[in-house]
Specification:
Strand order of the largest sheet: 1-2
Helix content: 40-55%
Number of domains: 1
Order of helices and strands: HHHEEHH
Largest sheet: 2 strands, antiparallel
Radius of gyration: 24 Å
Structural class: mainly alpha
Number of strands: 2
């Protein structure tokens, strides 16, 4: 059985949100291992799945996903491509909602089961990837710190030039 309570947010989303307490967002400790590399799109994926990964990559903050996340993104994108195909089948003219099995029993068309299964998988994987509306609504990118009027006067940029001598 899984852990109780709401699923925790991705650490990078927490870091981008900042600290809701009295501490500043930069005071949040950095626990966990930071993965490296850019997401890649496997060549063997259907073109719809490849496009799905491109949309996700372009829609989320930079460096949110790493190379190792390519596998779960591929699974999500493949589920989306299968869901899209099932939707096209159901939308086709003359689609039979009820079909007769080999044994002669009436049953729902198998495309309906495929559609439902992929929708469930998309919701589950999307939640793990931070692709749900709540994660996007809560996402706050860190504000850029305005430059000091003393920056660059003496010494390196970013230092006011004042020393503690």
């Amino acid at each position: 059985m899984g852990a109780r309570g709401p699923r925790k947010k991705l650490p990078e989303l927490n870091r981008l949100d900042g600290s809701p307490g009295k501490r500043g967002g930069s005071d949040l400790p950095d626990f966990g291992i930071e993965a490296v590399g850019d997401v890649f799109i496997p060549d063997h994926l259907h073109e719809d799945a490849q496009g799905c990964i491109e949309v996700i990559r372009g829609s989320m903050p930079p460096k949110l996903y790493a190379k190792v996340d390519s596998f779960i993104l591929s699974a999500f994108a493949t589920a989306w491509a299968v869901h899209k195909q099932a939707t096209h089948e159901i939308s086709a003219p003359g689609f039979d909602w009820i079909v007769t099995s080999e044994r002669g029993n009436q049953q729902p068309n198998p495309w309906l089961r495929i559609l439902d299964k992929q929708a469930t998988l998309l919701a589950s994987l999307g939640d793990r990837l931070g692709l749900n509306p709540r994660a996007r609504a809560d996402l706050k990118l860190p504000a850029e710190k305005p430059a000091s009027k003393f920056d660059g006067l003496i010494g390196l940029p970013g230092s006011s030039g004042l020393s503690k001598h």
